[in-house]
């Protein structure tokens, strides 16, 4: 597959701009899709373009089996992004934050490494939460978990046939993040900006602060009003931070003196 074909497979290219110098690649949460970022489109004009990432098993890739190994998924996406001509910014919410982080790792040392990593609603990669697995729950319990988690529009739960279609992808996403373990590695050269909701019971600020250990650059954590999906009302702040980051020089790791 050539670079252009790979970009069509992995990216929602509808919002791209020939004048953009930076691309913000947005990764979905578990059970989510690129459609979540539709409300962000008006915030991107000029030098930064919005590029939602298309994962298998959902949206236009519904006919494909969903991914089950986050590391292998990050490998594939990193290779496609590495072939892109613009500067790279990555954003991810919840599961998407971990996926964006692992893609950032794989782009380290490339000609065009990640300029800035933005993460929301996910504890730092080194934090293993002692939660009971949910991916194998019986159907009624799994659906109840999805309701409480807010991973789908409420109307979806009224359509059992649609749930039947989406269930394998949702279970695969939760299983993938349950199995994920962060391997030791060098910190990223790029800055990391992080946000969480002040009433998110699963991701309190204390679990976000260790993201600082994953960068040799600047780290910022902001706590905004809301629960796990605080972004629904607060994405404008993230967009402002993205535009500010695009104006910063490319980060450089300090060199060791001989």
From TrEMBL:
Pfam families: Thioesterase
Domain Thioesterase, chain residue ranges per copy: 24-244
InterPro entries with a match to the protein in the record: AB_hydrolase_fold, TEII, Thioesterase
GO BP, one annotated term: lipid biosynthetic process
Catalytic reaction list: a fatty acyl-CoA + H2O = a fatty acid + CoA + H(+)
Entry's family note: Belongs to the thioesterase family.
Name of the protein this chain belongs to: Thioesterase TesA
Species of origin: Nocardia colli
Lineage, broadest ranks: Bacteria, Bacillati, Actinomycetota, Actinomycetes, Mycobacteriales
């Amino acid at each position: 597959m050539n670079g252009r074909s790979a970009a069509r497979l992995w990216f929602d290219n509808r919002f791209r701009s020939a004048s953009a110098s930076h691309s913000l690649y947005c990764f979905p949460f578990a059970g989510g899709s690129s459609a979540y970022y539709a409300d962000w489109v008006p915030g991107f004009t000029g030098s930064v373009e919005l590029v939602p990432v298309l994962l298998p098993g959902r949206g236009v890739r519904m006919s494909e089996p969903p991914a089950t190994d986050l590391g292998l998924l990050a490998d594939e996406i990193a290779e496609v992004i590495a072939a892109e001509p613009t500067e790279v910014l990555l954003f991810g919410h919840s599961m998407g934050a971990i996926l964006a982080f692992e893609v950032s790792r794989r782009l380290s040392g490339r000609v065009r490494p990640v300029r800035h990593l933005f993460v929301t609603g996910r504890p730092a990669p080194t934090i293993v939460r002692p939660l009971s697995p949910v991916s194998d729950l019986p159907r009624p319990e799994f659906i109840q978990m999805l309701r409480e988690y807010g991973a789908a529009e409420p109307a979806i739960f009224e359509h059992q046939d649609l749930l039947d279609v989406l269930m394998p992808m949702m279970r695969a996403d939760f299983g993938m993040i349950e199995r994920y373990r962060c391997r030791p590695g060098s910190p990223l050269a790029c800055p990391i900006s992080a946000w969480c909701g002040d009433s998110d019971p699963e991701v309190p600020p204390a679990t976000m602060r260790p993201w600082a250990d994953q960068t040799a650059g600047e780290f910022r954590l902001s706590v905004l009003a809301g629960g796990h999906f605080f972004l629904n009302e607060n994405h404008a702040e993230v967009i402002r931070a993205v535009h500010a980051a695009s104006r910063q020089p490319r980060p450089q790791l300090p060199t060791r003196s001989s």
